[in-house]
Amino acid sequence: MQYDYLIVGSGLMGATFAYLAHHAGKRCLVVERRAHTGGNVHCQEVAGIQVHQYGAHILHTNNREVWQFVNGIAECNRYTNSPVANYQGKLYNLPFNMNTFYQMWGVTTPLQARRKIEEQRSEAIRKLDGREPANLEEQALALVGKDIFERLIKGYTEKQWGRSCNELPAFIIRRLPLRFVFDNNYFNDSYQGIPIGGYNRLIDRLLQDIEVRLKTDFLEHKQELDTLADKVLYTGPLDAYFDYRLGHLQYRTVRFETEVLETPNYQGNAVVNYTDRDVPYTRIIEHKHFEQFGPAVYDNPQTVISKEYSMEWMPGMEPYYPVNDEKNSALLREYQTLAAKEENVIFAGRLAEYKYYDMAPTIERAMQLWSKEEA
Ligand code: FAD
To answer: How far apart are the CA of 40 and the centre of ligand 1, in A?
Structure first.
């Protein structure tokens, strides 16, 4: 065989696995359907700004090994994610913390904030009259009360899922963390940031000296490609591998509307969520704030924003978020049974496992898979 590994897909899973195998002396071939590498972390430079073309990506983790691995390849900046919510023109800090509670009720101490939330929660819990919450709306009301739910959760969630909160299952929101400190840092992780110069730098270095064939769909050339390598790492959609013979796994997707604006600073923050149902988009991302901080924001007279519209996925669209309901979970199990019978094929990554993975867990999984291969 010409190669030890044929790696299908050059996203973080494929690129990390290829890097590890290559550095262990294995011969790797990467095939990528798109015209560029990197999968969904791919960036496009627009007006001198790294635009996260498939949605905003912030690397965050508590895993020191993963953080050091990434930084050893492409150094990351210290970007701290502090999204803001805009509800009917009024701004609230996220995640829910003392700043949010002050903006919502004018309360200035943790005790006042706790009392206010307890008052609102107890009203919702009383209405339940001892029964379990039957839907997401009842669940959220019992966790955080009416004001936070109506202003910051309801509209956003309904746009994300395309359904009313009282039709969505309660399990989607198991916890809604509330912070009784003035802290707008969205993630609790020790490490967070973005590769300086964008994600392409990370991916290019992971794939350095490895043969990559772009615009090559593995499934269209499967017969020929299968003869080239001992083993396949497949990171494409699981159902596509089996030609959808049992049906389509469903996803939610996002449509992006990206514009270059002739202003240096449009919204003063990378992420602004629009939590009102009447605004059709869920968020506006202003990309320069991921890499330019403080006065440096004004170095570039232009800015690039992306409005995100959450949508039902249809075949042919980019599959983003798996729908982990009973129907899709059952179909997934059937496909997994078929996958287990495929010899010398490893199915890994967010599409092949039909599982939402953040970037750090994706890298961690690639490392685990490689350790297993090496053993
Ligand atoms: P992908 O990046 O999807 O890569 C799979 C690759 O396989 C693609 O390039 C695809 O073209 C290729 N492929 C598929 N089929 C074939 C085929 N038949 N032949 C050849 N090639 C094929 N994570 C975070 O940690 N922080 C964030 O802020 C964050 N934001 C996100 C926002 C959005 C909108 C989305 C959807 C995800 C976000 N993620 C985030 C998750 C992150 O994108 C994933 O963890 C990561 O991209 C997973 O990498 P992957 O290689 O498994 O998949």
So the answer is: 4
Best residue among 235, 311, 354 to mutate for probing ligand 1, ranked by most atoms within 8 Å of CB: 235
Residues 67 and 118 in one domain: no
Q: How far apart, in Å, are the Cα atoms of 173 and each of 11, 139, 141, 254?
A: 29, 7, 11, 21
Residue 318 lies in a domain: no
Q: What is the CATH number of the domain that holds 330?
A: 3.40.50.720
Measured distance CA(293)–CA(79) in Å, rounded: 9
Mind listing the pLDDT tens digit of every residue in the chain (375 residues)?
899 999 999 999 999 999 999 999 999 999 999 999 999 999 999 999 999 999 999 999 999 999 999 999 999 999 999 999 999 999 999 999 999 999 999 999 999 999 999 999 999 999 999 999 999 999 999 999 999 999 999 999 999 998 899 999 898 888 889 999 999 999 999 999 999 999 999 999 999 999 999 999 999 999 999 999 999 999 999 999 999 999 999 999 999 999 999 999 999 999 999 999 999 999 999 999 999 999 999 999 999 999 999 998 988 899 999 987 889 999 999 999 999 999 999 999 999 999 999 999 999 999 999 999 998
Q: Number of structural domains, the chain? A: 2
Q: Which atom of ligand 1 is nearest to the CA of 349?
A: 52
CB 7 within 8 A of CB 39: no
Which residues are tagged catalytic? 175, 179, 252, 283, 308, 356, 358
Ligand 1 near 264 CB (within 6 A): no
Q: Distance, CA 132 to ligand 1 centroid (Å)?
A: 36
Q: Is 362 helix (H, G, I), strand (E, B) or coil?
A: helix
Shared-domain flag, residues 20 and 142: no
Distances (CA, A) of 102 to 109, 113, 141, 146, 272: 9, 8, 19, 16, 19
User: What is the 246 CA–ligand 1 centroid distance (Å)?
Assistant: 23
The upper half-sphere exposure of residue 296, i.e. CA atoms within 13 Å in the direction of its Cβ, equals: 8
